[in-house]
Amino acid sequence: MPPICYSAMPTADAEHLWTGGRDAYDNLPETMVSDGPGHPCRHCLKNIDAGDLLLVFAYRPFPELQPYAETGPIFLHKNRCERYKAEEELPPVLKTSRDFIVRGYGENNRIVYGTGAVTATTDVPGYAEELLKRREIAYVHVRSARNNCFQCRIDKQKAPAFSEASAFI
Q1: What highest taxon heads this organism's lineage (predicted)?
Q2: Is the separation of the CB atoms in 59 and 71 below 8 Å?
Q3: How far, in Å, CA of 50 to CA of 108, rounded?
Q4: What confidence tens digit (pLDDT) does each residue in 76-133 have?
Q5: How far apart are CA 61 and CA 9, in angstroms?
Q6: Which residues contact 142 (CB under 8 A, 6 or more apart)?
Q7: Which one, of 91, 74, 90, lies nearest residue 82 by Cα?
């Protein structure tokens, strides 16, 4: 099986918000000041440092509205940051918690039932690989185990549809 790849929020989505665009609920993002760890940027996949400005907004990492298209609050550096590039390595934001929800989705962007599991951070890569071996699973989401917020996506290989496509277009 090809190695897994961690995918951050597409740059097109971040640019949309950095240039005054609206979120998944048609609201403008709110600006906050980070008080330190606990504000992971979904574009660079690093924590936003204390004192730095951030945007908080509703995000739907799915191409269309449908019953399984989970939408929730996430953070983004207010000022442009570079998109996470070390796709084969566990991103920095996934090293800040003891566990995450890892869940598989089919080509139709629906949850594959029975795949969601609270997973120890050290086990995230292995569980994602195990899920991605299954024919019916197209990709995996990593989400906060406490708040269910989207962290990043994991694919069998680079996924041009998610990496390049905007959720806002």
Answers
A1: Bacteria
A2: yes
A3: 39
A4: 999 999 999 988 899 999 998 999 999 999 999 999 999 999 999 999 999 999 999 9
A5: 8
A6: 94, 100, 101, 102, 124, 128, 150, 151, 152, 153, 154
A7: 91
